[in-house]
Design brief:
2 domains, oxidoreductase, GFO_IDH_MocA-like_dom, Dihydrodipicolinate Reductase, domain 2, Gfo/Idh/MocA family oxidoreductase, nucleotide binding, single chain, Rossmann fold, nine-stranded mixed beta sheet, six-stranded parallel beta sheet, oxidoreductase activity
Length: about 325
């Protein structure tokens, strides 16, 4: 297919553009609200066309799909425009600023008959898929709890609106908590029911939270403890899944690279778990293209995007109010 990039973003430049080209896709045009940014992105990355008029780009019949990686508040309108034009959509997380908007996007894609996916890259990782397989196969028995720690130091070139613009969807909760929500759902197959949380602005964020800790309850009774931050340069990241018959420790795996170690611990001892080290974004693109062709589903579809957003918004509300919040999926999960 021929693709349009909606948003001249860092993630498009560093990860998705190469994944699309690696899958034999033609990235034909890049759109940005700023003409100079679109022009520079196109020149730097060898894209033939660029522009600021999204409707004009979407009117081109040869464009079959769009990848949306603009700031968060733009996703809803841009996705609806692409869907209305009959384009398949791969959208960055969080899908929208509200669960209602996300549900509207997913419903519109279903009505139009186009493929709609959320770019939750972590579930495309060989390490995460290996952990999921261990859980599903019963190697650790009944799941009792998960621990997700995704506290990092946000690099300077990624800060900008993420740390000072709530209107654009800034803050660590929409940026990272959505990832952990998706990971928990991916590993357990369960949608969190309720959450309690605390958040703070500990030095980086201006007007938005830059650190949050929360505990989520799953329908099975299992609990999830999550920690996300922009301000922890040496904390490391990882996940743990603890069950009645064993535990899984995965260190350094909450990343865009296929790295880290996975260890299974049972009564038999410690076992290093091998996993494939494919490119995460290449896997996401491959799964998306297969879904477009009618084979299976995207790695993370629209419902997955709704669910991760719903959990993140519940975490933010719980932290803001100091009260337990039920997760409201708006009928979409």
């Amino acid at each position: 297919m021929r693709w349009a990039l909606v948003g001249a973003s860092t993630i498009a430049a560093e990860h998705v553009l190469g994944a699309l080209r690696g899958a034999g896709q033609d990235v034909a045009v890049v759109q940005s609200n700023t003409a100079s940014r679109a022009a520079e992105f196109a020149r730097t990355h060898g894209i033939a066309a660029f522009g600021t008029d999204l409707d004009a780009i979407l009117s081109e019949a040869e464009i079959g799909a769009v990848y949306i990686s603009s700031t968060n508040e733009k996703h809803h309108a841009q996705a609806l425009a692409a869907i209305a034009a009959g384009k398949h959509v791969l959208c960055e997380k969080p899908l929208a600023m509200s669960v209602a908007e996300a549900n509207q996007m997913v419903a519109a894609a279903k009505a139009k008959g186009v493929t709609f996916a959320t770019n939750h890259h972590l579930r495309c990782s060989g390490s995460h898929r290996a952990v999921r397989d261990l859980v599903a196969s019963g190697r650790i028995g009944r799941v009792l709890s998960l621990r997700l720690f995704h506290a990092v130091h946000l690099p300077g070139h990624l800060q900008g609106w993420r740390i000072d613009n709530p209107a654009a969807g800034g803050g660590v909760i929409p940026d990272i908590t959505v990832h952990d929500a998706d990971v928990a759902r991916f590993l357990t197959g369960e949608d969190p029911v309720s959450v309690v949380a605390e958040m703070t602005s500990s030095g980086m964020g201006q007007g938005v939270e830059d650190s949050v800790m929360s505990v989520w309850t799953l329908p099975s009774g299992a609990m999830v403890m999550a920690h996300e931050s922009f301000t922890h340069p040496f904390a490391g990241s990882g996940l743990e899944v603890h069950g009645t018959e064993g535990s899984i420790f995965a260190s350094g795996v909450m990343t865009q690279q296929p790295v880290g170690e996975v260890t299974l611990v049972t009564a038999s001892g410690r076992e290093s778990v091998p996993y494939p080290t494919h490119n995460l974004y290449g896997q996401a693109v491959a799964d998306f293209l297969a879904a477009v062709e009618g084979h299976g589903r995207p790695a993370a579809d629209g419902r997955d995007g709704i669910a991760s957003l719903a959990v993140a918004l519940a975490v933010r509300k719980a932290a803001a109010t100091g009260t337990r919040q039920m997760v409201d999926y708006g009928g979409g999960a």
